[in-house]
Amino acid sequence: MDAGAGLCRACAAGLPRIPAERCALCQEEPAAGGGERCPGCRARAGPLFACLAGAAFAGAVEDAVHRFKYPAPGLRGLDPAAAALMRELVAWAAARAPGGAPDLVVPVPLHPRRLRQRGFNPAAELARPAARRCGARLDAAALWRLRDTPSQTGLGRGARRRNVRGAFGARPGWRAPARVWLVDDVVTTGATLAAAALALRRAGARQVVALCAARAFRGRPRGS
Predict the structure, then answer these.
(1) Is 160:188 a contact under the CB 8 Å cutoff?
(2) Tens digits of per-residue pLDDT, 69-117?
(3) Domains of the chain: which residue ranges?
(4) Is 192 helix (H, G, I), strand (E, B) or coil?
(5) 115 contacts 189 by C-beta, under 8 angstroms
(6) Are 159 and 188 in contact (CB under 8 A)?
(7) pLDDT(223) > 50
(8) How far is the C-alpha of 90 from the C-alpha of 93, rounded, in Å?
(9) Regarding beta strands 168-170 and 143-145, do their DSSP bridges make them parallel or antiparallel, or are they unpaired?
(10) Which of 17, 117, 12 is CA-nearest to residue 58?
(11) Rounded CA separation 152/161 (Å)
(12) DSSP code, position 182
């Protein structure tokens, strides 16, 4: 599939892709090489081993994210062009994931009430092809959303962390394999992914790599 599926060649060429040489965790700063962390991220401990997105959340990518996440109700309303672009952005992120293929791919879950309202989980729609591409098993029920948290939109970094603290748990009795890819659509501050990764680590995962289609940066987009 063309990496710019759903876009003309000119728009595909103009996608604000995140360069491979950026830090594998914050993607803000340069790092020594693919899969490496910048000095600031090496000094910080956290549940995520890496957090990679395919492109900056801006321009055509931002438009595609909104068309993908907020279609007409249910899967039938999905925009095929936007969905194809989102899948390819996750594939670009996965190609830079340090450590090789995972043992398991897990989407960030929605709370059951929100899943009923929306009709589908955008993260699961991205995790399924990601698992198929790398030959790993998908487990969409490994993580549960324990609280129906308010939207993160408009919240600051600290408020986002507080909002999702303790919001996720692993399926009772389930043990995570060593290496897990955690998939979502967009990463802003990383608070949601960190909370979900912590639940996976507590369930036994030794290394959690987050993969997203797009990443929102403070200030100007950090494209190539």
Answers:
(1) yes
(2) 988 766 667 788 899 899 999 999 999 999 889 999 999 999 888 888 8
(3) 48-215
(4) helix
(5) no
(6) no
(7) no
(8) 5
(9) antiparallel
(10) 17
(11) 9
(12) E
* CA angle, residues 147, 152, 155, in degrees to nearest 5: 125
- Mean pLDDT computed over every residue of the chain: 85
Q: Which residues pair with 30 in a beta bridge?
A: 22
- Residue type present at position 169: G
The CATH architecture to which 48-215 belongs is 3-Layer(aba) Sandwich (3.40)
State pTM to two decimals. Answer: 0.86
Where do we find the tokens 């803000």?
28
Find where tokens 């999905």 sit. 78
Structure-block tokens of residue 216: 């929102």
Where does the chain show beta strands of DSSP type E?
50-56, 104-107, 137-138, 143-145, 168-170, 179-187, 207-215
